[in-house]
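Sample log: ABC transporter related protein.
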Amino acid sequence: MLILIENLTKIYELGKVKVRALNNINLSIERNEYVAVMGPSGSGKSTLMNIIGCLDVPTSGRYILNGQDVHNLTDDELAHIRNKEIGFVFQTFNLLPRATALHNVELPLIYNGTPRSKRKEIAMQMLERVGLADRANHRPNELSGGQRQRVAIARALVNNPSLILADEPTGNLDSKTGEEIMQIFRELNEAGNTIILVTHEEDIARKCQRIIRLLDGEIIRDELNS
């Protein structure tokens, strides 16, 4: 099992007001699953993804990622897990505008201390994997939206993470380009990657193996796609 979440609750205090973003969530995700998380605004899906991605911590409950209980880890330890275990893909790509595609993909390797001689080789392999090796020396403003997202996916893969978290990865793309990105995710999953994808689009979620639906901070449905 890759992810185990038990009785997880997250409460935000906004002045004197307490907002219960997640309420007693229980969830497990096996290795090599391909899961969509859906729900309207305010349902808790972003909070859940932030906790799974070790960007936030729960108020109570347990979250175990790849055998490690992350609840009591320090900020430095959480940062290490984010870099080692999790690859992030965002709707807005989050690429450095002045850096080439190759350098953007190299960044996680710089943070984890990979020697310079190896970084370029590994980054090029990842760009090849997403079909973008011929754009390695182009900057983001010289790439289409779909190509930028491919760079972001290559960057997410570069540390060989246990988990890929994709937050609305097709949200800024036209439908044809979105289909191409979803094909890449499908191929990555078939190659053994575990993927959790947040989306508000039903047709995108239907391309995943499993759909978890949230409402008011609770899981209301957890279904396998037929």
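Observation: The chain has seven helices and ten strands.
Observation: The two ends are 22 Å apart (CA to CA).
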